[in-house]
Amino acid sequence: MTGGAGFGGAHLCAALLAQGACVFVVDRVLPRNSYLHLAAIADKVELLYADVRDLEAMQLWLERFQIKTVFHLAAQPIVPISVTAPLETLSNNALGTYALLEAARRSPFVESFVLASTGAYYGTTHGDQPIAEETAPLPAASLYGASKVAADIAARCYAETYGLNVGVCRFINTYGPGDTNFSRLIPRAVRNLVCGEPYAFGDRDDGTTKLDYMHVSDMAHGYLAVAERAAEHRGQVFNFGTGRLHSTAEVAEAVSLAYDGQTRTPLFEGEARVRPVVKRLDVSRARDMLGWSAQYDLTTGLGETVSWYREHWERL
Asked: What is the pTM of this model?
């Protein structure tokens, strides 16, 4: 069962279906532009409309359908919304996690629980050295980050206290087909290009931020790798990423090249930073313990992603 039919959840569904799994999806709505619809797989999963904070509903469905593996991806993931609606974000991301963990603990059928955490767990960082899983979180850059820290800790506590086979996935920034959150860098770049708008990216960044960008397909296979070894690595945390850094300006330029081969200078209106934000995760644990590694480089991934947006733009 996956909690969340959004961007990452839909790609996880596609990966699970490819393995022949019976997939149940819990979400409050299924937008017409969901990747589940656009990839023509919505009718191949069982949709359960509910809120993951509803403990009774979660427990009922886990037991009624004898769910063995829970992938918890349901969240309020949009950083600007977390600033304007902090309590709702905390409720969704932290209390929703507690409710689903408790439902899984009570179920006699659940064998493993995989949590979608985030690289935002580590807070605002400035060094280019890879961040290991044991690193303590710095002050969060957003209320979203704080809410995910709470969920991350809760999942590991359930593993320690109740013996629940929990695996925690901390993912770096993901991109790929189906992302309709146009406040994010890559979808926003494509929208600007398709709509003929100025190649501008607002005041949230100055273009110097350096991050790792991972294709959503690599993320989906990371979930699967953790689920397969959850009992063996109970309570373990795994970082996922490519290990390569790119500035936001570099990524915006790469999207432009992938779109039509033209070089455009992206406009970032954020105040110039004395110390750029830099974040790269140490992914050696996932490689060594799970046999996982990212398969997409940025150029290949952006080429596929931009082509997908071109093909499906009228339906977005």
From this structure: 0.95
